[in-house]
Amino acid sequence: MTAKPIALQELPADLDRSRLPNHVAVIMDGNGRWAKRKGRPRIIGHQKGVDALKNLLRCCRDWGIPALTAYAFSTENWGRPLEEVEFLMTLFERVLRRELQEMMAENVKIRFVGNLEELPKSLQSEIERSMHDTQNNSGIQFTIATNYGGRQEILQACQAIASKVEQGYLKVEEIDEALFERHLYTQGIVHPDLLIRTSGEMRISNFLLWQMAYAEIYVTQTLWPDFDRVEFHKALFAYQQRDRRFGKV
Predict the structure, then answer these.
(1) What is the DSSP secondary-structure string of 98-152?
(2) Which of these, 133, 143, 171, 178, is most buried using a 10 Å CB contact count?
(3) Which residue in the list 22, 55, 77, 137 is annotated as catalytic?
(4) Is 29 a catalytic residue?
């Protein structure tokens, strides 16, 4: 008989605490396929995906990983069926309203990145409230990329910098990586050390293109709703086997 996996509340013994990533980013892929395999509507997969994300957030907290970024909705996702998009917007809003008090109690600092102005006004209000209420929390930094696209982020940064040069507020020779990063959605957030993508897709899908320059990439066939602490343990163990040279010998 195969032993059942333990709950893994504590950091697994085969992981080196000193070599954990400071920031984990996740592309939460496979909600729809998970639902289809079970003969359920796609929206059920998205609901289960929210549970998986909550569990991962708490796992990062329990194991001492200070930052988590989740790719919740891309700029390309507007091309999905209208009823699915509307459901996702409603789901985001409902989850924020329902979970904010608990996030406060757990000292989570919430931040949203992306072109938030294109989201429904009611959702924008919940986003603003969640960021305002948690801004002084000192626990895990939880970033949600919503209506986010890496190319669009870089483009808007270039436009903002070019405008300052044109208006005489900035000289071309003053432009460096640090200045560029201050014009990104993610300003002030440490770059991810580890990117996890579920469902086996081998691409980064326009996610954190600038920030992911030296992130280690881990791809699993596991669909997102099934991604639990056991699966996260596997990802972190694989990460700690990597030799991170950052272009050096």
Answers:
(1) HHHHHHHHTTPEEEEES-GGGS-HHHHHHHHHHHHHHTT--S-EEEEEEEE-HHH
(2) 143
(3) 77
(4) yes
